[in-house]
Amino acid sequence: MSFQLVIAEKPSVAHSIAAVIGATEKQNGYWQGGGYLVSWCIGHLVSFAEAGQYDEKYCKWRYEDLPILPQPWQFIVPDEKKQQFEIVRALLNRPDVDSVTAATDAGREGELIFRFVYQMAGCTKPVKRLWISSMEDAAIREGFANLYPDSDYDALYRSALCRAKADWLVGINATRLFSVLYHKTLTVGRVQTPTLKMLVDRDAKILRFQKEKYYTVGIQSGSLKADSGHIASMDEANTLKSTCAGTSAICTSIKRERKAEQPPKLYDLTTLQREANRLFGFTAKQTLDYAQQLYEKKLLTYPRTDSQYLTEDMGQTAQHLVSDLLGLLPFAQGLDLTPEVGRILNSKKVSDHHAIIPTSEFVKQGFTGLAESECKLMNLACSKLLCAIAAPHEYETVTAVFFCAGNEFTAKGKTVLVPGWKEIDQRFRSTMKADGKEEAESLNTLPEMAEGQSFRVTSTVSEHFTSPPKAYTEDTLLSAMERAGAEDMPEDKVNCSAGAREGGLGQAERKGLGTPATRAAILEKLVQMGFVQRKGKQLVPTKDGINLAVVLPESLTSPVLTAEWENRLTEIAKGKADADEFMAEIEAQVRQLVKTYSCISADKQNLFQSERVIIGKCPRCSENVYEGKKNFYCGNRSCQFVMWKNDRFFEQRKKAFTPKIAAALLKNGKAKVKGLYSEKTGKTYDATVLLADTGGKYVNYRVERKE
Predict the structure, then answer these.
(1) Which of 155, 147, 33 has the alpha carbon at shortest distance from 571?
(2) CATH number of the domain where residue 230 is located
């Protein structure tokens, strides 16, 4: 009997696939049955080798060994993943396995994960590709009925390989280069560094901002209120107020406009992450993790997507799904909705995966057994689907201009004509517990009036200040990462591939830092490395983050340049750009970087050194004494004075030698210390400890008296 081997990315996905195709017999590291063997990778089973594997000299970080440009590239299996790799390798090379199905996540990274394992195992058996957007049983069955030749995804693999190699080359060389120059580990990344630069630039704008005061004069007659424009001088504003008080204002013009706000598009990963951050304070990584969990539970479609439409053959599916959701969701009860499903169908605007929507499995199960965070995300996906197929939101705006005391005043009003999709959105938001209060929509209905009509008015003066730019949140930063580079390259046929034009991809969709699937990890890494900190929902660069962004060259920090790299990777995936040419440019960039930054000035070398904390004055030379990791030391290099934190005196008495104790000893020559341990009695006591410095190599201490 021969078998078809199926390789998934995670054990949970493998289990779901195995159950559908009949591989129900559990083995060590795989499932078996129905002519199938189903195993898994646990993410990257195979990775690029560390630099030290190419040459022992690379184990040390030295400028003279740069740049590191592997030829050929080498690969490793991490120790913690060797067991599963050996299982997969053995399965790939079993004589009774005649074909292989790549069932890793259907995207760039999933393709790379499978190909690395396949190649490392030395397998040459034919490969088919499972490409699905949902883990529902029906989707899995349909996917296996329509497997694709894996060669169809060769361009996607080349793009993934280029991305991985570029990140390795830039990361290894730039990190080592600037770490050696500045005597501190400074992690540099092809995408994370430009992202950091965006945060630093915004922070600088906020710090440089000078608020300015201005005034407005308001006139009122009953419910009618109108305002002047900005007035710089308080005296001028008060004069106008006095002139208007008790006089008449004449309506000189009334402009009415009927407007429509179209329903929102469905979620792609970025818009889902943004909205979850804005409403619930979820980080981008948390949203991705929750969405992945829901996908593996078959309740949500594949989350790592950049599409906001469904394919045109999904119209009936969407229609049924909407009908079922109307009966399931509490906020949708009694809603009068005529679904316009055609609005969300556009096959040309679907790339690898369609938009994120609930599944029919969710309709059956509902919210039963879901964590609060998962419920919130499912509600978001459900409400977005209902909003997307609802009627436009229609309203009328009224702008009335008045003339009073020689000045113009303006009143604006808005009246809702057809609530449309916004009724659904408001219903949903009223039922959800959100972390932040969203600003309510301002509705101001103006009273009936006519041109030429006069009003007796009162007047007031109000004081205002200009506002600084807002710090980035994950919501706004994800949006900025997605749009990076878009404004710098206008849309044109030269810079837009035929495939992109046919697919309706706009400039903002073709540009950007990273991909929807990678941006969350980039933000987390910046925080973990200490270059960015979270303050509530805000992302703020640290001192080290600011310094790093300032000292690095534009080739590493420019969002525009890096967005161009990302665009090139997309073109490679479409077969419209050359992978070798891209890698040659990356290598040239790395060589030039090392050549340009061979040394820095002495004052800059201390840029990333931690600020030393002064504890007191040295009793021998009167210079400052600083706290180190293991001691308190004199700043005068010729002076040998040092107090060790692990001094036997304090260790015997089971007392930590704290900066407070050290400061007291330096200031007064003695310190009151509580809780000293007595080996003789086995009890603790309070005492005064004396600094008994004799000027030798070691500093001594003694107990003066017990308290």
Answers:
(1) 155
(2) 2.70.20.10
Task: Tell me whether residue 516 is in a domain.
Answer: yes
The per-residue b/e assignment along 633-665, b for 16 or more CB within 10 angstroms, e otherwise, is bbeeeeeebbbbbeeebbeebebebeeebbbbb
How far is residue 193's CA from residue 555's CA, in Å, rounded to a whole number?
Answer: 10
Cis omega (within 30 of 0) for bond into 358: no
The domain of 401 spans 213-262+394-420+440-465
Contact by Cβ (8 Å): 617, 631 = no
Q: 3-state DSSP call for residue 425?
A: helix
Looking at the structure, tell me whether residues 506 and 564 fall in a common domain. Answer: yes
Residue 435 has pLDDT above 80, yes or no: no
Burial class (CB in 10 A: 0-12, 13-18, 19+), 5: buried
CA distance 15 to 611: 53
Residues with active-site annotation? 302
Locus of tokens 């280029």 = 162
Residues 338, 344, 349, CA angle at the centre, nearest 5°? 170
- Summarised one tens digit per residue, pLDDT across range 195-229 is 999 999 999 999 999 999 999 999 999 999 999 99
Can you read off the two tokens belonging to residue 101?
Answer: 């199905």
| Within a domain: 276 | yes
- 192 and 217 part of one domain: no
Identify the CA nearest to 523 among candidates 272, 199, 302, 173.
199
Distance of alpha carbon 160 from alpha carbon 675, whole angstroms: 61
Write the pLDDT tens digit of every residue in 339-380.
999 999 998 888 778 999 999 999 999 999 999 999 999 999
In a domain, 63, yes or no: yes
Contacts of 215 (CB under 8 A, 6+ apart): 230, 231, 232, 233, 234, 236, 237, 461, 462, 463, 464
- Quick one: 9 and 95 in the same domain? yes
**Is-contact 74 54, C-beta < 8 A?**
yes
Q: Are 117 and 41 in contact (CB under 8 A)?
A: yes
CATH number at residue 51: 3.40.50.140
Residue 71's DSSP bridge partners are none
Distance CA 624, CA 614 (A): 6
Judge whether 111 and 153 are in contact, CB under 8 Å: yes
**366 found inside a domain:** yes
Residue 273 belongs to domain with CATH number:
1.10.290.10
- pLDDT interval class at 442 (50, 70, 90): low
Same domain assignment for residues 256 and 405: yes
Q: What is the pTM of this model?
A: 0.79
The answer to whether residue 14 scores a pLDDT higher than 70 is yes
**Residue 7 and residue 133 share a domain:** yes
What is the pLDDT, as a whole number, of residue 441? 57
* Identity of the amino acid at 507: Q
pLDDT at 374: 95
pLDDT tens, position by position, 459-476: 999 999 999 999 999 999
- CB atoms < 10 A from the CB of 689, how many? 23
Cα(306)–Cα(288) distance, rounded to whole angstroms?
Answer: 13
pLDDT in tens, 622-645: 999 999 889 999 988 888 899 999
Residues 448 and 497 in one domain: no
Domain count, the chain: 5
Identify whether residues 188 and 226 lie together within a single domain: no
Is there a single domain that holds both residue 277 and residue 380?
Answer: yes
